[in-house]
Design brief:
Layout: H1 2-12, H2 17-26, H3 33-59, H4 65-71, H5 80-92, H6 103-127, H7 132-139, H8 142-153, H9 160-178, H10 190-219, H11 227-251, H12 254-264, H13 269-296, H14 299-308, H15 310-321, H16 327-366
């Protein structure tokens, strides 16, 4: 019951500029833990299930890259229910803050949506040349890109532990690129594998730029920022990302090809539709959870959480598709986990120092 009340308060209450300034002074903002856990659960569903379903489309005869890209953002109608419910709550409470997002956030969400649409295509195209496990490890390097762009865009503080984490993860991805001989899916050439490698790495870099930009959009909002606005932001991002892929599908004549492809799909015509719809829903959970985590804590933690889910995606791919778990993958995974541990230890040390400093300042103030 208490958790439910905390989540509702996260939906309705926001952070004013005064509160934000106080939060910046202490370098810490209050965390709505139930809301954070809910969004983390959404991320887990999407980060683990999304790549598996996208790969399933390819494994049984799917070949339309923009169709697979389309599924990564087309699940936004599932947001209509929560938004309508929150709108009714808003109408029933005249004293509640503005429901609809401000104009500049709408424009920002449209721009972010276009970037997400392009990023989805890079990731989808890369996944067509790579096994899920390799693609997941490479995409986890978004943490390194997020760290760099967060430092530039939102002035994220760097520590030796953060730098160590970035270096270790980069080494892991380089290792995968150099030792790729026995890892290629059937029918993929060495050049195709490397092409997928760099496409996925480029996708990780682009999303690493986008997430700090989203955090900056939240920080620059004039009105109170709450999770209702985050839902609207995600809805608009998904709509514009879907428009990008839909226009590309029309230009590429994918709509006509889908009917023929569904008839030839290895799992049957019905399962063709099921796979695409399931992928759309699961990927929507991923992006909704990501934007929610940024709202609760920040873009860097979003990257950390995505990376923490990596071992689960690895294991799921090995069991679901019998992919090889090579020594190179194991080494890359170990480097990534070492980097995650380094980051978390650094955060623990920073929090410990921050608490000590706050306690010392409080004692001085009392005197």
């Amino acid at each position: 019951m208490a958790s439910s009340m905390n989540i509702e308060s996260g939906l309705e209450e926001g952070t004013t500029h005064d509160k934000a300034s106080k939060s910046q002074e202490t370098n810490k903002k209050p965390i709505n833990w139930p809301l954070l856990f809910l969004n983390a659960a959404f991320m887990a569903i999407g980060v683990i299930g999304g790549p598996l379903l996208s790969r399933l489309y390819y494994l049984h005869g799917g070949s339309r890259k923009w169709v697979n890209t389309f599924t990564q953002s087309a699940g936004f109608p599932i947001l209509f229910g929560p938004l309508f419910f929150l709108y009714l709550r808003h109408r029933a409470n005249p004293q509640s803050p503005h429901f609809f997002m401000e104009t500049k956030l709408f424009v920002a969400s449209a721009i972010v949506g276009v970037f997400i649409g392009l990023d989805n295509f890079l990731y989808t195209l890369g996944l067509s040349y790579l096994p899920v496990s390799t693609s997941s490890i490479l995409y986890a390097t978004q943490l390194a890109f997020i760290a760099v762009f967060a430092r530039i865009i939102v002035r994220q503080k760097f520590t030796p532990f953060t730098i160590n984490s970035v270096v270790l993860m980069t080494l892991g991805s380089v290792l995968l690129g150099l030792r790729s001989g026995g890892d290629r899916p059937a029918g993929v050439t060495g050049k195709g594998y490397l092409f997928g490698f760099f496409l996925t790495l480029g996708s990780a870099g682009l999303i690493g730029f986008v997430w700090p930009c989203v955090e900056l959009c939240y920080a620059k909002a004039t009105r109170v920022m709450n999770f209702t606005v985050v839902l609207q932001f995600q809805h608009n991002v998904a709509v514009f990302a879907t428009l990008v892929s839909f226009i590309a599908m029309i230009a590429n004549k994918d709509l006509q090809a889908m009917q023929r492809e569904s008839k030839e799909y290895g799992l049957g015509q019905t399962m063709y539709v099921v796979v695409l719809v399931a992928a759309a829903v699961v990927w929507q959970f991923s992006f909704l959870g990501g934007l929610g985590v940024i709202f609760c804590i920040g873009s860097l933690f979003n990257g950390i959480l995505s990376a923490v889910l990596l071992p689960m995606t690895e294991v799921a791919a090995v069991f679901a598709y019998h992919e090889k778990f090579t020594g190179e993958k194991g080494m890359a995974l170990a480097l990534c986990l070492w980097g995650f541990t380094s980051y978390f230890f650094g955060e623990y040390q920073n929090n410990k120092k921050a608490k000590a400093t706050t306690k010392e300042q409080d004692e001085q103030y009392k005197e």
